[in-house]
Amino acid sequence: MKQTKRFFMIPYFIWIGLFVVAPLLLILYQSLTNNQHQFTFQNYVTYGTSSTYLHMSLNSLWYAFLITVITLLISYPAAYFLSKLKHQQLWLLLIILPTWINLLLKAYAFIGLLSRTGSVNSFLTFVGIGPQQLLFSDGSFLLVATYIEIPFMILPIYNAIVELNPALINASRDLGATNWQTFRRVIFPLTISGVKAGVQAVFIPSLSLFMLTRLIGGNRVITLGTAIEEHFMTTMNWGMGSTIGVVLIVMMFIIMALTNDRRKKRRELNDDEEN
Amino acid sequence: MAAPIIELRGITKTYDDGFTALSNINMTIEPGKFYSLLGPSGSGKTTILRLIAGFTNATTGSILFEGQKINDLPANQRKVNTVFQNYALFPHLDVFDNVAFGLNLQKRPKAEIKKRVLDALKLVQLPGYANREISEISGGQQQRVAIARAIVNEPKVLLLDEPLSALDMKLRQDMQYELRELQQRLKITFIFVTHDQEEALAMSDEIFVVNDGKILQSGTPVDIYDEPINHFVANFIGESNILPGKMQADYQVEFVGKTFECADAGMKPNEKVEVVLRPEDLDVTTAEQGKLVVTVDTQLFRGDHFEIIGIDDDGNEWLIHSTNPVRGGKHIGLTFEPEDIHVMRFGEKEADFDARLEQYEED
Predict the structure, then answer these.
(1) Which domain holds residue A163?
(2) Stretch B231-245: mean pLDDT
(3) With an 8 Å Cβ cutoff, is A263 touching chain B?
(4) Could you count the other beta carbons within 10 Å of the beta carbon of residue A215?
(5) Of B93, B27, B21, B32, nearest to B59 (Cα)?
(6) Where's the ABC transporter domain (chain B) (predicted)?
């Protein structure tokens, strides 16, 4: 039994080894060498001492934070109302559907919508306040990034809400809670796992968005993702690119650690000892 | 009779798809008594409880709490608390916070909350469990926490929705005693929903037998057991031998081709009726002395009694409970007293039934 189990796990281990562990080691190796393939910490020193990189890192964190917050603010109510609707499967499909479309296509679609001659500006002109510069702004970058990330936030939250035992809501109301108190004390704490999963699914990819920063943000928004692309594709400084990659991976682990469940501390009840 | 604490008047409940869950329910609940709503699953008993708790609305009729109509009062403002079927404890809170939930909402002082929660836990025999997580305690303990969470708010009425159904046999019987004791100590009204007739008989001051969205019969456990109104009630409450019969005259009933003296009256001559004989009221004797003679088919030892199935000459099956096993010959006689025979009319309403009983019992 154990033998066959191990046998069937072989493809999994090969996959993990080839496509997860090996690339990570390669990135680590690259980040610790210079262009002459000599061992050096120079890339990390450069990263740590350069205000440009520091600025970029903060920028990445800031935009990823903004995207996550906006996505969450839209997705939680959306998931909540979705769980109350009749044709939930259909609505879910409509939410998932855009994720099947290539990111590049969606980006180009937004360029079409937001450009000076696009339909949004046509409308703005029609009501007399246009045309405006919409593309290549922080606002348009956040709009498109949020749009793209929303399904990844809605789905885990929706699942958490659907799994919630409706008897708990009745119990809360039975004990005297208003709708808002029920939400704050029962529904939200019990769906926080979905929120955490959604935050992980949105925040981490948002750290390294680079195509949108270029196509929609017009390189006005420079993040670590953009920097990696520059180093690998333009300046050919693979060592530095890998270093930023390692930094991103470390950030991701920090986010994972922060959003993971921790044991809550126990209350002190001195006159009520455990038996 | 004390002023009723809860009254249901002409309650009906029809769902959007046309399904009628309740039709013309009238109930009067007095303070400080233990009531059971007894019926098979799907009978509507839980719907009655949900109406009182405020989780669902009646289509017509009114619900009164201490004389005030509360149809439109939301659940969180009603002075009742519920113990849910699968307890519905909050998994993200520990035992203490579960019990303190209602008091925290009322923004009581910290010290008072602590005292009342610990007292409630003591009352349900869980002292020292305050810091446990819900996932760390057994089903029986969760049950107690659910009761503590409800009674700590000092409701005037406690609603219990099949709270014992998930427990094993032994624990269930222990909890029956405890619940009854708790109710008598707190002196509040319990409305207990169950499909288990033994539970209802053991604990209740009064039972409402519910089926198909109607209350078939209400009364004390002894009344309902001894004088079931119809076939359904007789069958559902306890085990019975039910036979077709004919009322020849007052105090004379004919069944299995013989005429017997009985204690029932007030029916038309030669009215077709059903006759109930409880298995424990049938006494085994010799074939010569018996009012009826049956052939023993099977005999099972049930621990506290023997369960005997006999078949008479007409092919009717008889269920007999006897403390002693039948030995020797397979033919046995059965005897019973006139008052062991209970006669039921077809389609008799509860009010008519009660009136008739009262009338001839006075004679």
Answers:
(1) 63-221
(2) 89
(3) no
(4) 20
(5) B21
(6) 6-237
